[in-house]
Amino acid sequence: MGIIIAILIFSFIIFFHELGHFTLAKLNHIDVQEFSVGMGPAIFTKEHRGTLYAVRILPIGGYCAMGEDDEATDSPSNFNNKSVWARISVIAAGPVFNFILAFACAVVLVAMAGYDQPVAGGVDEGYPAYEAGMRPGDRIVEMNGKNIHLFKEVQVYNQFHQGETVELTYERDGRQYTADVTPLFDEELQYYRLGITSSGYTAATPLTALEYGAYEVKYWIDTTLLSLKMLVTGRVGVDQLSGPVGIVDVVDDTYQEAKTYGTATVAVNMLNIAILISANLGVMNLLPLPALDGGRLVFLAVEAVRRKRIPPEKEGYVHFAGIVLLMALMVVVMFNDIQRVFF
User: Fold this and answer.
1) What CATH number corresponds to the domain at position 124?
2) Judging by DSSP bridges, how do beta strands 175-181 and 166-172 pair with one another?
3) What would you give as a GO molecular function for this chain, any one (predicted)?
4) Per residue in 258-293, pLDDT tens?
């Protein structure tokens, strides 16, 4: 069951991404040749106003075909004949819809489970935070100039900066205090700790569900960007990346652990994973790499500046090279996933 849920979550997120392209294409009066849910042979098709709507047998994503590679048509509603800003909006809509979906899931998650304010529930004596003057009830507002809205941001910052001194700003009774804090190595946990524990989750109102839902999405976007930075700088290796196989395995493991606590716990965990994947997909697609939406946006931005389109065949060569490199990376990531899961 966990594997089925994983496939459905992943498929819906990709479908929603393609729905973004489709929606903005329609709003810009661009011809959409086909909008498909799923991949593989079609099990249901219906044509409506020049668009073929299809449901395909494999529930893995979908696609929106707008004739971007068709250079022969003179139709004013062809994608290539629209203004550069119309095309930018269509291409950017996919990642933007991923962020919208992540936000919607985050609001539901916070409404169900509450939110973890960056308030110290406990401050361990003998650890740096206590020595710096922090006490239970203090609210952490900044770490090295980065605004903090969730307690998990404190944990992740410490995780990605193990042993590094951090300028910590916390608030008590309306006054702010700042101290330089160097995490202390915990011999038992084999981990550098500040010595702060969470105050737990706070029940959300409709307004705080919206506010902290936005903070949840921001948290996952920041975490994704920080992970990419560590990958580029060599602090993490390609062997630590996970692809679809790894994601399915994580979802299945999470489901198996959560189901013993009831349906609500399963729902909360699945929503959390959906936020992670959707926000991650939005960020990844905006990277200025060939074949991704971000790469296409780079070409469109250049066209907007120079007021002249880059020759389609040259752009096509760049995107093709990008696809080849991405496929090679996917093979490596899938190989790593299979090794971790099955061996």
Assistant:
1) 2.30.42.10
2) antiparallel
3) metal ion binding
4) 888 888 899 999 999 999 999 999 999 999 988 899
